[in-house]
Amino acid sequence: MKLYKLYIYFWFTALTVLIIGLFYYNLEETIVINIYDTYFIIPSFHLTIFITFLLAFIGLIYFLHSKFEIPLFKFLSRIHTLVSISCIFLFYLSSFLKFKKKNDFPLFNQDNYLNHFIVSILITFICIQLIFIFNSLFSIILYYTKKNK
User: Which UniProt key words apply to this protein (predicted)?
Assistant: First the structure.
């Protein structure tokens, strides 16, 4: 499978996230993440806007690499694209699962498992962005050191 223009994938995903966020969530819905005794309450609309801008920015960086013909490491770019878009897809899939009917048995609470799943998706997404930063910076350094020789 050849991936020529990775920025198109990120821009398409950003547009999809924006459309889902604008039409699916209302302004009062929040995402609550509980880690031990700390609660993170994030409005869904704000999170949608943040993810949209983040994906568009990543697409812009890929576009600039393409425009200035700075080659990236293909393997790292493919891994970054696949894992980033998969994390976004799984995050929105988990938020759809969160609105399922509540269980009548209070001792079996699935919210805790869903919180762990969301946090693990978030950690994976952050780690894969570090790989992207490494790939981009190292490619720029290699490009300009070869160009100056």
Answer: Membrane, Transmembrane, Transmembrane helix
The backbone torsions φ and ψ at residue 37, rounded to the nearest 5 degrees and listed phi first, read -115, 20
∠ CA 44-15-85, rounded to 5°: 80
- Which secondary structure element, helix H or strand E, spans residue 2, and what is its range? none
Residue 58 belongs to some domain of the structure = yes
Evaluate if pTM is beyond 0.90.
no
Distance from the Cα of residue 122 to its chain's centroid: 8
* Within a domain: 18: yes
Per the structure, the count of domains in the chain is: 1
pLDDT tens digits, one per residue of 55-81:
999 999 999 999 999 999 999 999 999
In a domain, 107, yes or no: yes
Q: 45 vs 3, 49, 51, 110, CA distance in Å?
A: 31, 6, 10, 24
CA distance 110 to 22: 27
Q: Let me know if residue 1 belongs to a domain.
A: no
**Closest alpha carbon to 40 in 104, 122, 108, 101:** 122
Domain that holds residue 142: 6-148
